[in-house]
Amino acid sequence: MPFRPLLDSGRVVLVDAPGPATRDDAIDLAASHLARHSGLDAALLRQALREREALASTGIGFGLALPHARQPGLEEDIGVFLKLPRALDFHAADQRAVDLVFAMVVDDGQVQRHLRRLAAIAERFADPAFCSALRRAGSQRALARLLLQADPQGAAVSSAA
User: Fold this and answer.
1) What is the CATH number of the domain that holds 25?
2) Is 129 part of any domain?
3) Is residue 26 in some structural domain?
4) What is the pLDDT of residues 70-115, one digit of tens each?
5) CA neighbours within 13 Å on the CB side: how many for 98?
6) Which pLDDT tens digit goes with each residue over 119-145?
7) What is the count of structural domains for the chain?
8) Which of 67, 89, 132, 157 reaches 20 to 30 Å from 61, CA-CA?
9) pLDDT tens digits, residue range 18-28?
10) Contacts with 111 (C-beta within 8 Å, 6 or more apart), sequence order
11) Domain PTS EIIA type-2: where (predicted)?
């Protein structure tokens, strides 16, 4: 389960209603949170995330989107999780609207690590019970607990993931 060290409880966000109105609004919100917690420039992050989204949708199915980008000189990978108050069209392959957004930015020189993290995150969110639990969580604290606990097999999260 690759959520730690990408996430901490401060980067798990239960978005207040009405929330973002569009996919770009959701990406911009994720970029703002990533910038706030990383010291990176929010405008650069928005641009990088939107450019990646323009290549192909990061809506991977199951109501989840994984906006991601690489930035040079990043000391550590960073992520943010957003639970949206309403689902948005991310043009996902399964045509399902997105209400769970896991955005991340990784160092530009770490392509293989970036791909491994994306695969592990997608695999975790492919668990319907996990996604249902996230959707039922009524507080930021409950969301953080679900996302930051050890994986279902009990293995601690590895920074090598």
Assistant:
1) 3.40.930.10
2) yes
3) yes
4) 888 788 889 999 999 999 999 998 999 999 999 999 888 877 888 8
5) 29
6) 989 899 999 999 999 999 999 999 999
7) 1
8) 157
9) 999 999 999 99
10) 70
11) 5-150
Q: Is 91 in the active site?
A: no
Q: What are 2's two structure tokens?
A: 């690759």
Q: What are phi and psi of 21, to 5 degrees?
A: -95, -20
Among residues 33, 37, 68, 114, the one annotated as catalytic is 68
Residue 145 lies inside a defined structural domain of this protein: no
Q: What is the value of pTM for the model shown? A: 0.89
pLDDT at residue 2 in the model? 60
